[in-house]
Amino acid sequence: MITVTNARKNYGNFAALDDVSIDIPSGELTALLGPSGSGKSTLLRAIAGLESLDDGVVVIAGKDVTRVAPQKRDIGFVFQHYAAFKHMTVRDNVAFGLKIRKRPKAEIAERVDELLGIVGLDGFQHRYPAQLSGGQRQRMALARALAVDPQVLLLDEPFGALDAKVRADLRTWLRRLHEEVHVTTVLVTHDQEEALDVADRIAVMNKGRIEQIGTPEDVYDRPANEFVMSFLGDVAKLNGHMVRPHDIRVGRDPGMALAAHEGTAESAGVTRATVDRVVHLGFQVRVEMRNAATGDLFSAQVTRGDAEALRLSEGETVYARATRIPALPGGLVPVEISSVASADAAEPAVKAETAATAETAESAETAETAETAATAETAATAETETFETAETVETAETAETAGAAPKDVAAGNESGARTTG
Predict the structure, then answer these.
(1) Using CA atoms, how far apart are residues 274 and 288, in angstroms rounded to an integer?
(2) In this structure, are residues 245 and 301 in contact, taking their beta carbons and an 8 Å threshold?
(3) Alpha carbons 21 and 67: distance in angstroms, whole number
(4) Which residue, 9, 248, 365, 416, could crosslink 17 as a Cys pair with Cβ 3.0–4.6 Å?
(5) How far apart are CA 42 and CA 407, in angstroms?
Protein backbone atom coordinates (compact mmCIF):
# COMPACT_ATOMS: atom_id res chain seq x y z
CA MET A 1 0.00 0.00 0.00
CA ILE A 2 2.75 2.48 0.96
CA THR A 3 6.27 2.11 -0.45
CA VAL A 4 9.13 4.47 0.33
CA THR A 5 12.33 3.87 -1.64
CA ASN A 6 15.79 5.34 -0.98
CA ALA A 7 14.41 8.38 0.85
CA ARG A 8 16.93 11.06 1.78
CA LYS A 9 16.38 14.32 3.63
CA ASN A 10 19.12 16.60 4.94
CA TYR A 11 18.98 19.72 7.07
CA GLY A 12 22.38 21.27 6.53
CA ASN A 13 24.90 18.63 7.60
CA PHE A 14 22.30 16.61 9.51
CA ALA A 15 20.81 13.60 7.72
CA ALA A 16 17.22 13.26 8.92
CA LEU A 17 16.63 10.39 6.48
CA ASP A 18 19.59 8.42 5.18
CA ASP A 19 18.60 6.13 2.30
CA VAL A 20 15.41 4.85 3.96
CA SER A 21 13.29 2.19 2.24
CA ILE A 22 10.17 0.61 3.71
CA ASP A 23 7.05 -1.23 2.54
CA ILE A 24 3.92 -0.72 4.66
CA PRO A 25 1.29 -3.42 3.92
CA SER A 26 -2.29 -2.48 3.20
CA GLY A 27 -4.66 -2.67 6.16
CA GLU A 28 -1.91 -3.01 8.79
CA LEU A 29 -0.93 -0.73 11.64
CA THR A 30 2.80 -0.06 11.38
CA ALA A 31 4.69 1.80 14.10
CA LEU A 32 7.76 3.94 13.42
CA LEU A 33 9.65 3.70 16.70
CA GLY A 34 12.82 5.50 17.70
CA PRO A 35 14.41 8.15 19.90
CA SER A 36 14.14 11.88 19.25
CA GLY A 37 16.02 12.82 16.09
CA SER A 38 15.85 9.32 14.61
CA GLY A 39 13.87 10.51 11.57
CA LYS A 40 10.52 8.88 12.31
CA SER A 41 8.41 12.05 12.10
CA THR A 42 10.35 13.26 9.05
CA LEU A 43 9.52 9.97 7.31
CA LEU A 44 5.85 10.28 8.26
CA ARG A 45 5.68 13.87 7.01
CA ALA A 46 7.36 12.81 3.76
CA ILE A 47 4.64 10.19 3.27
CA ALA A 48 2.03 12.90 3.93
CA GLY A 49 3.68 15.38 1.56
CA LEU A 50 4.41 17.86 4.35
CA GLU A 51 8.15 17.40 3.79
CA SER A 52 9.79 17.29 0.37
CA LEU A 53 12.51 14.68 -0.04
CA ASP A 54 15.97 15.51 -1.36
CA ASP A 55 15.92 12.12 -3.06
CA GLY A 56 13.72 9.03 -3.12
CA VAL A 57 10.21 7.98 -4.08
CA VAL A 58 6.91 7.70 -2.17
CA VAL A 59 4.20 5.45 -3.64
CA ILE A 60 0.68 5.14 -2.18
CA ALA A 61 -1.71 2.54 -3.60
CA GLY A 62 0.49 2.08 -6.67
CA LYS A 63 0.66 5.80 -7.47
CA ASP A 64 3.87 7.84 -7.28
CA VAL A 65 2.94 10.75 -5.01
CA THR A 66 6.45 12.07 -4.39
CA ARG A 67 5.60 15.45 -5.94
CA VAL A 68 1.85 15.37 -5.27
CA ALA A 69 0.34 17.97 -2.91
CA PRO A 70 -0.77 16.71 0.54
CA GLN A 71 -4.46 17.39 -0.06
CA LYS A 72 -4.39 15.18 -3.14
CA ARG A 73 -2.80 12.14 -1.45
CA ASP A 74 -6.03 10.88 0.15
CA ILE A 75 -4.61 10.71 3.66
CA GLY A 76 -5.78 11.55 7.17
CA PHE A 77 -3.22 13.07 9.54
CA VAL A 78 -3.47 13.38 13.32
CA PHE A 79 -0.77 15.16 15.29
CA GLN A 80 0.11 15.20 18.97
CA HIS A 81 -1.64 18.55 19.46
CA TYR A 82 -5.13 18.10 18.08
CA ALA A 83 -5.65 21.89 17.52
CA ALA A 84 -9.39 21.64 17.05
CA PHE A 85 -11.49 24.44 15.61
CA LYS A 86 -12.38 26.04 18.94
CA HIS A 87 -15.44 27.91 17.68
CA MET A 88 -17.01 24.71 16.29
CA THR A 89 -18.83 21.97 18.13
CA VAL A 90 -17.57 18.40 18.12
CA ARG A 91 -20.08 17.59 15.40
CA ASP A 92 -18.99 20.49 13.20
CA ASN A 93 -15.30 19.66 13.70
CA VAL A 94 -15.85 16.10 12.50
CA ALA A 95 -18.03 17.25 9.60
CA PHE A 96 -15.68 19.98 8.40
CA GLY A 97 -13.87 18.00 5.70
CA LEU A 98 -17.12 16.64 4.32
CA LYS A 99 -18.58 20.15 4.10
CA ILE A 100 -15.47 21.40 2.28
CA ARG A 101 -16.07 18.64 -0.27
CA LYS A 102 -19.70 19.74 -0.57
CA ARG A 103 -21.15 16.34 0.29
CA PRO A 104 -24.95 16.11 0.64
CA LYS A 105 -26.24 17.11 4.07
CA ALA A 106 -27.88 13.74 4.65
CA GLU A 107 -24.61 11.94 3.86
CA ILE A 108 -22.67 14.24 6.21
CA ALA A 109 -25.11 13.69 9.06
CA GLU A 110 -25.02 9.91 8.62
CA ARG A 111 -21.22 9.75 8.41
CA VAL A 112 -20.70 12.01 11.46
CA ASP A 113 -23.19 10.02 13.54
CA GLU A 114 -21.41 6.80 12.56
CA LEU A 115 -17.95 8.12 13.49
CA LEU A 116 -19.06 9.69 16.77
CA GLY A 117 -20.45 6.30 17.73
CA ILE A 118 -17.23 4.51 16.72
CA VAL A 119 -14.99 6.85 18.77
CA GLY A 120 -17.37 6.94 21.74
CA LEU A 121 -18.39 10.60 21.48
CA ASP A 122 -22.03 10.25 20.42
CA GLY A 123 -23.16 12.01 23.60
CA PHE A 124 -20.78 14.94 23.12
CA GLN A 125 -21.67 16.18 19.65
CA HIS A 126 -22.90 19.61 20.80
CA ARG A 127 -19.96 20.33 23.09
CA TYR A 128 -17.03 22.54 22.19
CA PRO A 129 -13.39 21.36 22.30
CA ALA A 130 -12.71 23.30 25.50
CA GLN A 131 -15.39 21.20 27.21
CA LEU A 132 -13.63 17.91 26.38
CA SER A 133 -10.83 16.07 28.12
CA GLY A 134 -7.52 15.53 26.34
CA GLY A 135 -8.43 11.97 25.45
CA GLN A 136 -11.82 13.03 24.09
CA ARG A 137 -10.23 15.74 21.94
CA GLN A 138 -7.82 13.24 20.45
CA ARG A 139 -10.68 10.86 19.66
CA MET A 140 -12.48 13.76 18.00
CA ALA A 141 -9.34 14.47 15.94
CA LEU A 142 -9.22 10.82 14.84
CA ALA A 143 -12.89 10.91 13.87
CA ARG A 144 -12.26 14.08 11.86
CA ALA A 145 -9.34 12.45 10.04
CA LEU A 146 -11.45 9.36 9.24
CA ALA A 147 -14.51 11.34 8.11
CA VAL A 148 -13.28 11.74 4.52
CA ASP A 149 -12.58 7.98 4.30
CA PRO A 150 -8.83 8.27 3.61
CA GLN A 151 -6.72 5.48 2.09
CA VAL A 152 -4.07 6.05 4.76
CA LEU A 153 -4.19 7.29 8.36
CA LEU A 154 -0.99 8.89 9.69
CA LEU A 155 -0.59 9.44 13.44
CA ASP A 156 2.34 11.51 14.73
CA GLU A 157 2.65 10.73 18.46
CA PRO A 158 -1.10 11.26 18.93
CA PHE A 159 -1.06 10.38 22.65
CA GLY A 160 2.16 12.16 23.59
CA ALA A 161 0.44 15.02 25.43
CA LEU A 162 -1.73 12.76 27.58
CA ASP A 163 -1.10 11.22 30.98
CA ALA A 164 -0.06 7.58 31.36
CA LYS A 165 -3.49 6.16 32.27
CA VAL A 166 -5.27 7.94 29.42
CA ARG A 167 -2.51 6.84 27.02
CA ALA A 168 -2.98 3.21 28.03
CA ASP A 169 -6.75 3.44 27.59
CA LEU A 170 -6.43 5.10 24.17
CA ARG A 171 -3.92 2.49 23.00
CA THR A 172 -6.51 -0.22 23.64
CA TRP A 173 -9.17 1.89 21.96
CA LEU A 174 -6.96 2.59 18.92
CA ARG A 175 -6.28 -1.12 18.43
CA ARG A 176 -10.03 -1.87 18.50
CA LEU A 177 -10.70 1.05 16.15
CA HIS A 178 -8.12 -0.20 13.68
CA GLU A 179 -9.63 -3.69 13.70
CA GLU A 180 -13.00 -2.13 12.97
CA VAL A 181 -12.08 0.28 10.15
CA HIS A 182 -9.05 -1.57 8.69
CA VAL A 183 -7.47 1.57 7.26
CA THR A 184 -3.74 1.40 6.56
CA THR A 185 -2.22 3.20 9.54
CA VAL A 186 1.27 4.51 10.33
CA LEU A 187 1.93 5.49 13.94
CA VAL A 188 4.99 7.46 15.04
CA THR A 189 5.98 6.97 18.66
CA HIS A 190 9.01 6.95 20.96
CA ASP A 191 7.06 4.85 23.48
CA GLN A 192 8.19 1.21 23.24
CA GLU A 193 5.20 -0.14 25.13
CA GLU A 194 2.83 1.75 22.86
CA ALA A 195 4.43 0.28 19.74
CA LEU A 196 4.50 -3.26 21.14
CA ASP A 197 0.88 -2.94 22.27
CA VAL A 198 -0.86 -1.68 19.13
CA ALA A 199 1.30 -2.36 16.07
CA ASP A 200 1.18 -5.26 13.62
CA ARG A 201 4.75 -4.40 12.63
CA ILE A 202 7.42 -2.13 14.07
CA ALA A 203 10.15 -0.27 12.20
CA VAL A 204 12.89 0.71 14.66
CA MET A 205 14.71 3.87 13.53
CA ASN A 206 17.99 5.42 14.62
CA LYS A 207 20.02 8.27 13.15
CA GLY A 208 17.95 8.50 9.98
CA ARG A 209 18.06 4.78 9.23
CA ILE A 210 15.78 1.79 9.80
CA GLU A 211 17.59 -0.68 12.05
CA GLN A 212 14.98 -3.45 11.91
CA ILE A 213 11.43 -4.13 10.72
CA GLY A 214 9.35 -6.97 12.08
CA THR A 215 6.48 -8.07 14.28
CA PRO A 216 6.58 -6.96 17.93
CA GLU A 217 7.75 -10.48 18.86
CA ASP A 218 10.51 -10.42 16.24
CA VAL A 219 12.06 -7.10 17.21
CA TYR A 220 11.80 -7.81 20.94
CA ASP A 221 12.92 -11.44 21.04
CA ARG A 222 15.22 -11.42 18.02
CA PRO A 223 16.77 -7.93 17.86
CA ALA A 224 19.00 -7.18 14.89
CA ASN A 225 21.64 -5.42 16.97
CA GLU A 226 22.46 -3.99 20.38
CA PHE A 227 20.67 -0.69 19.69
CA VAL A 228 17.36 -2.43 18.92
CA MET A 229 17.67 -4.64 21.98
CA SER A 230 18.51 -1.80 24.36
CA PHE A 231 15.90 0.59 22.93
CA LEU A 232 13.05 -1.91 23.11
CA GLY A 233 13.40 -2.70 26.79
CA ASP A 234 15.57 -2.94 29.85
CA VAL A 235 18.88 -4.73 29.39
CA ALA A 236 21.30 -6.21 31.91
CA LYS A 237 24.92 -7.24 31.32
CA LEU A 238 25.58 -10.74 32.64
CA ASN A 239 29.02 -12.26 32.15
CA GLY A 240 29.57 -10.07 29.12
CA HIS A 241 26.21 -10.84 27.51
CA MET A 242 23.20 -8.57 26.97
CA VAL A 243 20.20 -10.15 28.70
CA ARG A 244 16.64 -9.08 29.43
CA PRO A 245 16.14 -8.67 33.20
CA HIS A 246 13.10 -10.96 33.09
CA ASP A 247 15.36 -13.64 31.57
CA ILE A 248 17.61 -13.78 34.64
CA ARG A 249 17.02 -16.42 37.29
CA VAL A 250 18.00 -15.56 40.85
CA GLY A 251 18.67 -18.07 43.62
CA ARG A 252 20.89 -19.00 46.54
CA ASP A 253 22.29 -22.23 45.10
CA PRO A 254 25.56 -21.88 43.12
CA GLY A 255 24.74 -25.27 41.58
CA MET A 256 21.96 -23.68 39.47
CA ALA A 257 24.52 -23.63 36.63
CA LEU A 258 24.05 -26.34 34.05
CA ALA A 259 26.90 -28.01 32.22
CA ALA A 260 26.47 -26.93 28.62
CA HIS A 261 28.10 -26.60 25.26
CA GLU A 262 29.50 -23.26 24.15
CA GLY A 263 26.90 -21.13 22.37
CA THR A 264 23.98 -21.83 24.72
CA ALA A 265 22.48 -19.72 27.48
CA GLU A 266 23.75 -22.17 30.09
CA SER A 267 27.31 -21.69 28.90
CA ALA A 268 27.20 -18.11 30.17
CA GLY A 269 27.47 -19.66 33.62
CA VAL A 270 26.43 -18.40 37.02
CA THR A 271 27.25 -14.99 38.43
CA ARG A 272 27.80 -14.54 42.15
CA ALA A 273 26.33 -11.23 43.23
CA THR A 274 25.38 -9.13 46.23
CA VAL A 275 21.85 -7.79 46.55
CA ASP A 276 22.08 -4.01 46.38
CA ARG A 277 18.37 -3.15 46.45
CA VAL A 278 14.98 -4.83 46.23
CA VAL A 279 12.30 -2.67 44.58
CA HIS A 280 8.62 -3.71 44.73
CA LEU A 281 6.79 -2.50 41.60
CA GLY A 282 3.30 -3.80 42.22
CA PHE A 283 2.98 -7.09 40.39
CA GLN A 284 6.73 -7.52 39.93
CA VAL A 285 9.93 -7.03 41.89
CA ARG A 286 13.20 -5.62 40.59
CA VAL A 287 16.29 -7.06 42.23
CA GLU A 288 19.32 -4.81 41.81
CA MET A 289 22.59 -6.68 42.26
CA ARG A 290 26.32 -6.06 42.07
CA ASN A 291 28.55 -8.56 40.28
CA ALA A 292 30.97 -9.94 42.89
CA ALA A 293 33.77 -10.31 40.36
CA THR A 294 33.53 -7.03 38.42
CA GLY A 295 31.55 -4.76 40.76
CA ASP A 296 29.13 -3.95 37.92
CA LEU A 297 25.47 -3.35 38.73
CA PHE A 298 22.73 -5.32 36.97
CA SER A 299 19.04 -6.00 37.59
CA ALA A 300 16.70 -8.96 37.40
CA GLN A 301 12.90 -8.91 37.35
CA VAL A 302 11.09 -11.59 39.31
CA THR A 303 7.48 -12.23 40.24
CA ARG A 304 6.12 -11.29 43.64
CA GLY A 305 5.76 -14.99 44.42
CA ASP A 306 9.42 -15.69 43.67
CA ALA A 307 10.50 -12.67 45.67
CA GLU A 308 8.44 -13.77 48.66
CA ALA A 309 9.85 -17.30 48.43
CA LEU A 310 13.45 -16.05 48.26
CA ARG A 311 12.97 -13.44 51.00
CA LEU A 312 15.81 -11.39 49.56
CA SER A 313 17.42 -8.68 51.63
CA GLU A 314 20.10 -6.10 50.92
CA GLY A 315 23.67 -7.21 51.35
CA GLU A 316 23.16 -10.96 51.02
CA THR A 317 24.91 -13.13 48.44
CA VAL A 318 22.86 -14.66 45.63
CA TYR A 319 23.55 -16.35 42.31
CA ALA A 320 22.13 -15.37 38.92
CA ARG A 321 22.11 -16.99 35.52
CA ALA A 322 20.55 -16.23 32.15
CA THR A 323 17.65 -18.36 30.95
CA ARG A 324 17.79 -16.84 27.47
CA ILE A 325 20.36 -14.84 25.52
CA PRO A 326 19.18 -13.17 22.28
CA ALA A 327 21.26 -13.79 19.18
CA LEU A 328 23.16 -10.59 18.44
CA PRO A 329 25.96 -10.14 15.90
CA GLY A 330 28.91 -11.93 17.47
CA GLY A 331 26.73 -13.12 20.34
CA LEU A 332 25.27 -16.43 21.47
CA VAL A 333 22.42 -18.40 19.93
CA PRO A 334 19.14 -17.65 21.75
CA VAL A 335 18.20 -20.57 23.98
CA GLU A 336 15.38 -20.77 26.51
CA ILE A 337 15.94 -22.87 29.62
CA SER A 338 12.88 -24.43 31.24
CA SER A 339 14.61 -26.77 33.66
CA VAL A 340 16.82 -26.12 36.66
CA ALA A 341 19.92 -28.01 37.69
CA SER A 342 19.22 -31.62 38.54
CA ALA A 343 19.61 -32.60 42.18
CA ASP A 344 21.97 -35.38 41.22
CA ALA A 345 24.26 -33.09 39.21
CA ALA A 346 27.81 -33.49 40.46
CA GLU A 347 28.44 -30.13 42.09
CA PRO A 348 29.18 -28.16 38.94
CA ALA A 349 31.74 -25.45 39.52
CA VAL A 350 30.61 -21.89 39.24
CA LYS A 351 32.25 -20.40 36.23
CA ALA A 352 34.44 -17.36 36.67
CA GLU A 353 32.65 -14.19 35.73
CA THR A 354 33.92 -12.69 32.53
CA ALA A 355 34.70 -9.01 32.45
CA ALA A 356 32.00 -7.13 30.58
CA THR A 357 32.99 -6.33 27.05
CA ALA A 358 33.33 -2.69 26.14
CA GLU A 359 30.45 -1.37 24.08
CA THR A 360 30.15 1.63 21.90
CA ALA A 361 27.80 4.09 23.60
CA GLU A 362 24.95 5.41 21.54
CA SER A 363 25.25 9.15 21.21
CA ALA A 364 23.05 10.88 23.76
CA GLU A 365 23.11 14.12 21.82
CA THR A 366 20.89 13.05 18.94
CA ALA A 367 19.71 16.14 17.15
CA GLU A 368 16.00 16.84 17.42
CA THR A 369 15.98 19.69 14.98
CA ALA A 370 15.07 17.72 11.92
CA GLU A 371 12.36 15.79 13.76
CA THR A 372 10.47 18.95 14.50
CA ALA A 373 11.15 20.86 11.31
CA ALA A 374 7.85 22.12 9.93
CA THR A 375 6.82 23.84 6.75
CA ALA A 376 4.79 26.99 7.17
CA GLU A 377 1.78 27.05 4.88
CA THR A 378 -0.84 29.68 4.20
CA ALA A 379 -4.43 29.22 5.26
CA ALA A 380 -6.63 29.51 2.17
CA THR A 381 -10.10 29.01 3.63
CA ALA A 382 -12.02 31.60 5.63
CA GLU A 383 -13.14 28.98 8.16
CA THR A 384 -9.58 28.03 9.11
CA GLU A 385 -8.28 29.70 12.27
CA THR A 386 -4.78 30.13 13.58
CA PHE A 387 -3.71 27.06 15.49
CA GLU A 388 -2.21 27.52 18.92
CA THR A 389 0.49 24.89 18.51
CA ALA A 390 3.98 25.72 17.24
CA GLU A 391 3.46 23.53 14.22
CA THR A 392 2.52 23.70 10.57
CA VAL A 393 -0.53 25.72 9.65
CA GLU A 394 -2.13 23.85 6.78
CA THR A 395 -4.87 24.99 4.41
CA ALA A 396 -8.31 24.15 5.70
CA GLU A 397 -8.70 21.42 3.12
CA THR A 398 -5.17 20.08 3.65
CA ALA A 399 -5.56 20.24 7.41
CA GLU A 400 -8.81 18.33 7.23
CA THR A 401 -7.46 15.76 4.81
CA ALA A 402 -4.50 15.38 7.10
CA GLY A 403 -6.49 15.31 10.33
CA ALA A 404 -6.67 19.14 10.71
CA ALA A 405 -3.81 19.46 13.05
CA PRO A 406 -0.21 20.55 12.99
CA LYS A 407 2.50 18.49 14.72
CA ASP A 408 2.16 18.19 17.56
CA VAL A 409 6.30 -6.08 29.60
CA ALA A 410 5.21 -5.70 32.37
CA ALA A 411 7.60 -8.22 33.34
CA GLY A 412 7.42 -11.39 35.09
CA ASN A 413 9.92 -14.14 35.27
CA GLU A 414 10.44 -16.94 32.78
CA SER A 415 6.68 -17.19 32.21
CA GLY A 416 7.09 -14.68 29.38
CA ALA A 417 5.74 -11.41 30.80
CA ARG A 418 7.83 -8.39 29.82
CA THR A 419 8.80 -4.95 30.87
CA THR A 420 9.58 -2.82 27.87
CA GLY A 421 11.09 0.15 29.60
Answers:
(1) 9
(2) yes
(3) 17
(4) 9
(5) 11
